[in-house]
Amino acid sequence: MLTKLISLLQRMDLLLLGITCGLTFFGVAMIASVSVFESYQLTERLTAQGTLSTPTNSFYLWRSFFHMLVGFGVMITVACIPYHFWRYSAHVIFAGTLLLVLALFLPGTSNDYGTAQSWLVIGGFSLQPSEFLKLSLIFYLALWLQKREQCISTLKEGFYPFAALLFISTAPIAIQPDLGSFMVLSAIAVTMFFLAGGSILHLGLGTALASAFGLPFILQEEYIRNRFKVFLFPDAPTFTETIGFQIQQALIAIGSGGPFGVGYGKSIQKFGYLPEVQADMIFAAMAEELGFFRILIIFCLYGVFVVRGFTIARRAPDRFGFLVASGITMWIAFQTIINIAVNMSLFPLTGLTLPFISYGGSSLVALLAGVGVLLNISLHAGSHQPAHRRYVRPGMGSLRRSFGL
């Protein structure tokens, strides 16, 4: 048994595993630092209601630690399951997560945390189904694209069914409305469609249609329209203390960090100035405490993670493994970029977490499950010749080779 375990570890991508564990532990450490004020404020209210006996400043710390333990357990379990299992169960998993998303619209089942109707209450626990929909969509799309290998570049047999599938997946997310998850799901699907041999012209058409049909649902809420106003007119005096307060405080935190930061645990913005400091806006607090040069280390870790993810995809023994690994890697890469861009006022507020670091149980468990799938694919990397695993449309061979795909 020990020999088999050692053999598995030797074949597994240990660098990817190490980066994942490092970022997750770092996230717990940052939550311990930046959430003390929010933890005390929350538990003080719960104490006044009689739910807790005394306030504490470690509420989010212990919850995030529990999320980490659950997430690591899920990651280890998934890493031990042959990735072909997800091919055979993709239909059931995708349908199940989609039903959970639709259940949010049933009376008395959802918990409106913040602004979006995104949390499902089950037995006293809250669950964000859209986080698990990202992974299940990757499984289903990989299976679907694999079956349509020879016709994926056509309009009738390729793009139209793909557009219908994308609409079914993202429409409930747009209605919530959840701009961040809508964008990530769309990015995952578009990337996988392109890598499977989809037409660039069709993707351009699909992007236009998604914007035309999805954005009206999302922009029907005033708070989302306000986010775009703040993004487009960040210096408007009337926004500084109202709808633009959160992003202004994030920029103050990032600017206050300077080259080397104010020091771990010494953030000023965490004391009630920066909303959602332990979740969506944790990057700003990290920049304040750690500074520019230390934040660069975090950037490098994410960069190496993405490189290793696409390396696993390139070396996958079959087309399904290639598409799944590519989709998971793109999910983490795109969500990281959007979260950091939001914190730096380069994109409107979306509510996306910073992968592995932000507070959020559903997000962390889903992400670590995705890493578990990547690790299992890495066990089989190089076991077969990978050249036959995917269809390359005419004229795209040189572009694929330039990216090592």
Could you provide a short overview of the structure?
This protein has 405 residues and is an all-alpha fold. It contains 16 helices and three strands.
Describe the 3D structure.
A hairpin with a 7-residue loop joins strand 1 and strand 2. This protein has 405 residues and is mainly alpha-helical. It is built from 16 helices and 3 strands. The radius of gyration is 21 Å and the shape is globular. Strands 1-2-3 form a 3-stranded antiparallel sheet, covered by helices on one side. It has one domain. Helix 6 (129-147) packs parallel to helix 8.
Per-chain topology:
Elements: H1 2-11, H2 14-34, H3 36-48, H4 59-79, H5 84-103, E1 110-111, E2 119-122, E3 125-127, H6 129-147, H7 155-175, H8 179-195, H9 200-218, H10 222-232, H11 245-257, H12 282-290, H13 292-314, H14 319-343, H15 361-380, H16 397-402
Antiparallel strand pairs: 1-2, 2-3
Helix pairs in contact: 2-4, 2-13, 4-15, 5-6, 6-8, 6-14, 6-15, 7-8, 7-9, 8-9, 8-14, 11-12, 13-14, 14-15
Strand segment count: 3
Q: Strand order within the widest sheet?
A: 1-2-3
**Gyration radius from CA atoms, angstroms:** 21 Å
What is the N-to-C order of secondary-structure elements (H for helix, E for strand)? HHHHHEEEHHHHHHHHHHH
Oligomer: single chain
Number of helices: 16
Uncertain runs are 387-405
Keywords:
single chain, three-stranded antiparallel β-sheet, mainly alpha, disordered C terminus, globular, 66% helix, 405 residues
